Amino acid sequence: MPEGNPVPAIRPALRAATGALLSGAVGAGLLTAATVATAPAAQAATSCSGTASVYGILDDGRLTFSAINPARGDLTKVRIGPDLGFTPKAMATLNFNTVLVTSTAGALYRVDVLTNNNALELSGVEKIADSGWTHDKLTYDGHGHLYGTTSDGTLLQYLVSQDKPQGSQHIGQRKEIGSGFVLKTLTAAGDDRLLATTSTGALYSYKINSAGAWDRDDLKTSGWSAFDQLVSPGGGLYYGRMGTTGAMYWYKDANPNDGSGSDITYHNDDPVNTDGWTQKLLSAQPNTFKCTTTAPETVDRDNIAQVKAAGRNLMAQRNSAWNTAAQWSCLERLWDKESGWRWNADNPSSAAYGIPQANPGSKMGLMGADWATNPLTQIKWGLYYIENRYDSPCGAWNFFQNNNWY
Fold this sequence. Notes:
alpha+beta; Tachylectin-2, Chain A; four-stranded antiparallel beta sheet; elongated
């Protein structure tokens, strides 16, 4: 990285360079040995179109733009623009060429981006409100709602009715959602969905309904305290910046709508960057990419954790309605009981065989000639059987609990 460069260099994160950083992160409260050991490993193959786009503002007031590959977490572009001309306090990205920024004086500005391709150039910075915007955090959900928190922990919602709002006529219907939102970070993660961290390291997910009522899911109770910036472009991608080092980490939530943090994949050994993210504010543009995930073609058949991870991916592919923490829990417990998820589980009292305990095992030949040795073939057959006989994994698990077979 050139000396004095205020933003990270463009490079894939190198695993060999992250060991010391991770050791420091443990001391900072971001990671624990248990977190690193139990964080799910990425098993599925993911292909994406588009990029994760992140705007930011440096300490000297200059706007920045960064692009990240959403499948690999690699930084692919960095652009630095001009000084905005005021002291920023909070920001929210509406679309690729429109960013809202509040000032420390309480004014609201619309920053119009001309291009962020070969250079970051602005077509204008317009003050659209002289006062009243004293929010300490601001975020946009990509579906018409702007959210902000005040210093006393009040969460507010606004309706944004234009791509380039001119003022209160296009940012209105102010609604007070609730109090007690004293948060360290806040970002939108989808349509009326917010993601936040606390000073104690908890990771929360909020869902706001049409009436303004809200529910909170505690995704993680600890481990996220070192992040001073958290942004999400949606799609279950979360980026956390460590203020002490300027490192940017990335995480993938397999189902951001299930209210569970158990399916968040950690990429702690392969961060976006190990340093260089020095912006005082960061904001992700919503809905800039689309990814598809397929289960792996091969898996270490004797590694139960890998086999289970593949099983969850195959379950979601089999029926999208099953892609919930509840359905996965049912399937996991069912095959824990039946076979311990062992591909060579052989019932001595019958012809049942394999992970789903097909009886006889040769039934699984419907999914492939390698049914006797390939756990993926066995899982595919088991899911086919469950769907046709019990409608869902929980249907099969409920039957098993009453009958000790399924």
